[in-house]
């Protein structure tokens, strides 16, 4: 496992949802159902590649909503990006209530993205399916 074809030298494109957090309870009343809820998270890519798009689905991948992105860092003098970017998306509370699952995927500047299903490998490394 120490030969060049197996050594991992770059991270893959990945993303995560931070809000709502796991097992968070959302208050449902006449006021909150009229107000949008803001989903939040972060994304990153390897090799200094910029994350250029983050999308969220609330219907198992049938439709995707493009998120607002916030790049806190500027590229270095070589045009590389080494930090996470943060993303957010305002969604209708009723649509959120109707969804069974929320998933996110990111795209980098080389159009690498996260697959729907986990890709198995012997070492269990570089898993990056929708999360």
Short summary:
This protein has 131 residues and is mainly beta. Helix content is 5%, strand content 30%.
Number of strands: 7
Provide the low-confidence segments as ranges: none
Rounded mean pLDDT is 89
Order of helical and strand elements:
EEEEEEHE
How widely separated are the two ends? 28 Å
Shape: globular
Helix content: under 10%
Strand portion, in percent?
Answer: 25-35%
User: How many domains make up the coordinates?
Assistant: 1
Find the CATH topology. Answer: Immunoglobulin-like
Domain Moybdenum cofactor oxidoreductase dimerisation: 6-131
Keywords: Metal-binding, Molybdenum, Oxidoreductase
GO molecular function, one term: molybdopterin cofactor binding
Protein name: Nitrate reductase
Protein architecture, described:
The chain has one domain (14-108): Immunoglobulin-like (Sandwich), CATH 2.60.40. It has one helix at 93-98; strands spanning 14-19, 37-44, 51-57, 65-66, 68-70, 85-91, 103-108. The protein has a four-stranded antiparallel beta sheet. The protein has a three-stranded antiparallel beta sheet with strand order 4-3-7, with no helix packed on it. The longest helix is centred in the last third of the chain and has 6 residues, at 93-98. Strand 3 and strand 4 (65-66) form a beta hairpin. The protein has 131 residues and is mainly β.
């Amino acid at each position: 496992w120490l030969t060049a074809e197996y050594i991992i030298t770059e991270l893959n494109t990945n993303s995560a949802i931070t809000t709502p957090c796991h097992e968070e309870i959302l208050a449902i009343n006449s006021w909150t159902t009229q107000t949008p809820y803001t989903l939040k998270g972060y994304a990153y890519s390897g090799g200094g590649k910029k994350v250029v798009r983050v999308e969220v689905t609330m219907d198992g991948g049938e439709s995707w909503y493009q998120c607002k992105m916030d790049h806190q860092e500027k590229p270095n003098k070589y045009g590389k990006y080494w930090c996470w970017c943060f993303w957010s998306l305002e969604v209708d509370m009723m649509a959120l209530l109707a969804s069974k699952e929320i998933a996110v995927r990111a795209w980098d500047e080389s159009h690498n993205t996260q697959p729907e299903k986990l890709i198995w490998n012997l070492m269990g490394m570089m898993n990056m399916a929708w999360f």
